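Lab meeting prep.
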Amino acid sequence: MRCLIVGTAKSGTTALLYTVAQAMGGQPVVHMEDRISALQVLPEHTVVKLLFEHESGPAISAFGAAFDKRILLVRDPRDNLISRLLYMVANSPAMLGDQPCLRVFCQLLQRKQQAPASVSLQQFPPMGKPSEFLASSCAQIQALAAFAASAGADWHILRYEDLVAGRLDGVAAYLGLPVQAGARVDPQYQRVARTKGAGDWHHWFNAADVALLRPLLAPMMATLGYADDWTLAPQPHITPEHSWMYFERLVRERRQHFGLAPLALPGPDQLQPGAVVRLSKADIINRLIRQYGFKTFLEYNKFDGASFYGDIVCDSKAIAYQPENLHFDAMRARHLLRVTAGADLGQLLPLAALLERHAGQRFDIIFFDPTHERPEVDLSMRALCALLTPGGVLVVHDCNPEREELTVVKRRHGAWVGETYKAFALLRQYNRASTVTVSEDYGVGLVWNKDLVLDYPIEADISYAQFAARREAYNGLISYQQFLERSERGDLLTLFAQPPAAAPLRFQPRPAPPASLECQLFWRRPGADFSEDDALTRALPADGSVQALHFTLPLGAAPVERLRFDMADAIVAVRIEAIELRNPADALMWTWDPAAHAGQDWRNVRFHDTGADGLFQLATSADPQFYPALPATILGQLGPGWQVLVVMAAQPPLVSALLAALAGAPPRQRDARQARA
């Protein structure tokens, strides 16, 4: 008897091969995953296993005609996907050689084993968007489902779930042989087995996985005869043996097979509660350094203590920080002051100073973590490329926001990527063959210094909706798995290889910024005058929106004899809701009393009470000023980290003009106008 067994990877074909061979008796010739082209002559007593994804459907049908019996093995696509994900390391030299990837994969498995619902399958590196692993797995399962639907009566279709449960009466009847479960598999293939069970997906999927995978897998399940029931286990349970311990064993055995050194992966006792488990920009940079032989590294980061400079392994390293006064607020003051205490302030360099310091010097790789505001990001990216060696790489953080709320222009607490993705997309518009973005860690953009066009106009814009609809085109998005495979050869041309261009990218003119005023906080030293050198400036949009302006005294702002607040730089109406003074511990030390404004030191300002609409301040010149009357005990403490918080709204020009007209009218006329209003 000649028997052919066909199925996709991780669907139980190895177990079925040895089960059928045992039932056939004697010593049948066993072919394990040979290609059809190598199986031209087959003895009479033969059992052959083919992986469906290795051949085409028509080729399998034609080849199957030479067999007496043909068995097609199918499996629930959900369980099949999990098995593929955990086993894929076995056949991926690039992944096996990437320690950060293995570390993250193992830690995610450990965390999922401990709390299954807390970790989505989408967090694992091969499932990162865009996921070639998911796309190819679905394509293979879909092709198998189509093959099963068109298979004639001379094919017996066996479910994996029946195989592992020992329900083999149908196979026995089809073969005319006493088929028994539990056949002994050759030891060299034992590594492929994991749970030898079915229904794992109930415990491995969480709600986010169901939302992603149900539209993809449900049509295939229907074709293969599986019910559209996606009920998850109420108390999911995953054993160590079937998760991270299985993965560890595969890594150990396959690294040995490929001649790689033994590797100790982190144990579950090393997991820090609440720690984020993901691949980072440092992992990507270190791989670039290793794979492409880079020797010199520059980091240009925000001054917030989040540098990973110590994690980078490179022969020569340098670091500098961007001043970020606009974002130095009281909520971060104590943290930033601690950072400052241990920092070399000579590393705090505006872009022009950075370029001057390194004039004539070049770096193989530069990491840039922007302040996320345009046009500063555009200008910085173009300028930093001038510091790269020919063939060097600029690494830009935050190029792939997954949610629109991360992209607000004004800094938000927590994750924030601002407008960096727009600036990178525009650079890519002119340098498509030299830019890609790795999907990890909010998007790590890579710019290859090869034939770059950097004199392009930066007055172009995209909306988040435009970007989200075609992010792979706008930022050249690749998954970490793709990054591993592309960088394996150590050839930058392969890393930056681009598919054929699709429809052209569309940009529109960047909208003009709303009209804004400048508000300033001055501090005066003993025996000195107020000076622009001792002042902080904040923009205030003149659109009626309420803004919270943070003025935090910087390093060197001590001693302070007096404060002055200039609410605008134009003749305008504003409404100030609160003025507060807070110490570096964010404790409220003083607050402005608007009800007592008549006894306070306001200059070039007239107050106007509109009744129900509240109290407005009207500037009578372009230089309105307020001098807070602070107790001497507070003035003696003022210094770095103290913050003045002003909550106010500048009125649009028409409202300002009306309020000014009302304020300037004689009392009787003003009262009549207010009554009519």
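Slide two material, second protein:
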Amino acid sequence: MSTSFDGLQFPVQPETQKVSSSSTGKEIVAAALSLVDELSSQNALNEKNWRKNYPRHFKALVAHGIRSVNAPITIAKQGLAQAHHSFEFYRDGKCYRLKDVMTVPNIQTLHTFKYQGQSTAEPEWYVPYHGQKLQGQALLEQIQTWEKCGIVETSHADALRQVIAHPEWFDLSDRTMVLFGAASEAGPLTWLAKWKANLIAVDLPNAKVWEKILNTVQHGNATLYAPSTEPLTENFEIHELKNKLGTNLLTQTPEIAHWLAQNPNSLDLAAIAYLDGEKHVRVSMAMDSIMSYVSAQKPDTSLMYMCTPTDVYAVPKDVIQASTQKYQQRSKIEKWLSKSVATASMKHFFKHNSQQLINSDNGKSYGIADCLVVEQGPNYALAKRIQQWRATLARHQGQKVSINIAPSTTTMSVTKNPLLKAAFNGASLFDVEAFAPETTNALMAALWVHDLKNQTSVANPETQIEHPLELIMEGANHGGLWRVAYLARTALPFAAIYGFANDKLPIQQLLGKFKK
């Protein structure tokens, strides 16, 4: 936990005079549940081991959200209000509530530097996949394979087919797209730079970060607008510029918000910044503060989020049916092996992904895909939940919101965790696919284009949906995690063993028969 009291911080707990992300997380989740189920709210608040048991409380958020079409809106309002009243912002030695951050004293003016890409190439799109550049019929066939194997939902496959049928959508010269965390490894910068977009890049004042951003834009056909704390002339080279650009979301929150609100164009705001641990919650809150302020000042602003598949979601009934069918149709060796391992582990491994359907007051039934991975921690879950709440609420209030589940991706932030790296290496054992960053980037950038350009997309608030949570169900590329036969976190440790053993030990031959 950071002890630097500058910028956006978790609150100091009055009882201990210390910062506790667990206490704050419990309070936010409890507040979110307070008006939909008082008992669940109290259970969250009284939880003694938040870091181990947080999944049950995040699952309660989803379960109670399903039961009523009004519940997700209530949950989002309560959770976000508690978060904005809890977090603090420090400047010049003084502490302010985050909800008041846009009116703190000494808000500096940011300057804008314009940088034009050098390419004259027309926009094009392809999907890098296993060393190939998939386009046209080859890409259509791969999309069909992913859909048939349950790696992506049909709505995701259909969205990709739509963008293939409309190559003109990739001309983004009419869009001004703001990337919070522009250099993010899983972000869409590389593609937007090829699609004539007007790009506003928000990222740390770090030479390595800006060298990547500037080089990417230079080789594309987009136009970059970058923030700086001083006015800059157009005569700078990249090796000079990289040391002069950038802003800090955590310490310059109001500056960034005011700078964006003054932009004369309609903005598409993408919350893709990621930081490790408790900083991820703080940067999510910083982005939320900025996006809320800009949206209030510029009502035609659209929002974009990318969800993680390792979370807990409401899902259509057919997803639960497919998971149950997969469990029932396991091979004899899989049944024997999973039962043996489950018994030996006192049923910690290979728990059946048995889910009861939950009836909603809209007359439909939904299930829950619980794919939370405990090792990722409650801070990661809270950071992503804050983004889901804002997306749900913003669309309800009439904003265009693109929010799609991206597949598990072998980014550096994931693969530096040895367990997760090994688990994804062995995920194919359970019909789960982890994607390379360049593949995820191409797919998710195309989905954002789809949501902006296709007026019938669920991103458009004028498109009718039967439940607010259907916004997040649509367009999901979960890599197969929704349809796994087991509770995902009880199968991943075995996938990790398989990943470690793959190509190294004789066990590979035995496990290769696991699915047969």
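Talking points for slide two:
The radius of gyration is 23 Å.
Residues 7-107 form one domain.
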